[in-house]
Design goal:
Number of strands: 11
Distance between the termini: 37 Å
Shape: elongated
Largest sheet: 6 strands, parallel
Strand content: 5-15%
Low-confidence stretches: none
CATH superfamily of the largest domain: NAD(P)-binding Rossmann-like Domain
Helix content: 25-40%
Structural class: alpha/beta
CATH class of the largest domain: Alpha Beta
Strand order of the largest sheet: 7-6-8-9-10-11
Order of helices and strands: EHEHEHEHEHHEHEHEHEHEHEH
Number of helices: 12
Radius of gyration: 21 Å
Length: 314
């Protein structure tokens, strides 16, 4: 009987092929797929932010599982997949602490203007008389968390240690939350000096951090995004930074990735990183191992380790 294949869906995941092959799985690459291989694909190994269209999935007649190495799965129509006999798994909570660390790092870097000060030193522009200036303190400010899942809760815990008052908002109540929940996203933005976006991306929340929400954070406020780029109206964010309606921003995720350098060339007061918040030496092997485990369980007919929550398919 022909060996079933796990399909590597995007080129940047080819570095994971040895791990999957070491787990006893045979792999193929989507961009090199032969007709014979296409018929043998039983699972897809995927990065959930990349779109997998139903049209493509229909070309894989034996497909039964999409195993996301990532926590997110916003590029996948989970409802369509399950209606067509395809299960979807993800790396549930495995890199939350690393993403939260990165979010706090972005926040501190932007709030204290660290990248700009670094450039001043390196470019020989350090003037002693400029040391004493107006630098706002962080303590006592309000940090609003958008989405109180594993990552949002980890951010909230760290924020408390930094003397920040924490509030949060999400579309669903969280009985385990020890921080007050705002009535709405807009209300959270109005109350926050710093708004940290940690929410899971879905079709229903694209652009939810709108121009109105951005301007509610205000000319003395900051937005940090470690969720997904499409959660924020990026054009409105850029306009607000340029127009002084938002003080600063710190972003690890973007609407288009890699984001074009020229898009940000003249945008002031923004700290930008390369969608790297969850990519630590410790977290990535755990995420890969969980994806391998899910594929192995699927092929054996066993219960999956980390299926996407049912709410994602509604």
């Amino acid at each position: 009987m022909p060996q079933p294949l796990a399909l590597i869906a995007v080129p940047f995941l080819t570095v994971l092929e040895p791990a999957f092959q070491g787990g006893g799985l045979s792999t193929a690459r989507a961009w090199e797929l032969s007709d014979d291989e296409r018929a043998r694909v039983r699972s897809i190994v995927h990065a959930g932010e990349v779109v997998l269209t139903p049209e493509f999935l229909k070309t894989l007649p034996a497909l039964g599982l999409i195993a996301c190495v990532s926590v997110g799965y916003d590029g996948i129509d989970v409802a369509w997949c399950r209606a067509n006999g395809i299960e979807v798994t993800h790396a549930r909570g495995l890199n939350a602490e690393d993403v939260a660390d990165h979010a706090i790092g972005l926040m501190l870097s932007a709030w204290r203007n660290i990248p700009a000060l670094d450039r001043i030193v390196r470019e020989g522009r350090w003037k002693q008389e400029e040391r004493i200036g107006s630098q706002p303190s962080l303590g006592g400010r309000t940090l609003g968390v958008v989405g109180l899942g594993h990552i949002g809760a980890a951010v909230a815990r760290r924020a408390q240690a930094l003397r920040l008052n924490v509030q949060w908002w999400g579309p669903r109540p969280n009985a385990e939350a020890s921080w007050p929940r705002a009535e709405s996203l807009l209300a959270l933005a109005q109350a926050s000096d710093i708004l940290v976006v940690c929410a899971r991306a879905e079709a229903s929340n694209r652009g939810m951090v709108s121009a109105e929400v951005i301007e509610a954070v205000g000319p003395q406020g900051m937005i940090v995004n470690v969720g997904r780029g499409q959660l924020i109206d990026e054009d409105a964010l850029i306009a607000a930074l340029k127009g002084g309606k938002l003080w600063r921003a710190a972003l690890d995720v973007f609407q288009q990735e890699p984001t074009p350098a020229e898009r940000w060339a003249d945008v002031p007061n923004a700290v930008l990183t390369t969608h790297s918040a969850g990519s630590s030496n410790e977290a990535v092997p755990l995420m890969v191992a969980q994806a391998i485990d899910n594929v192995q369980r699927f092929l054996k007919g066993d219960e999956l380790a980390s299926p996407v929550p049912p709410a994602a398919a509604t």
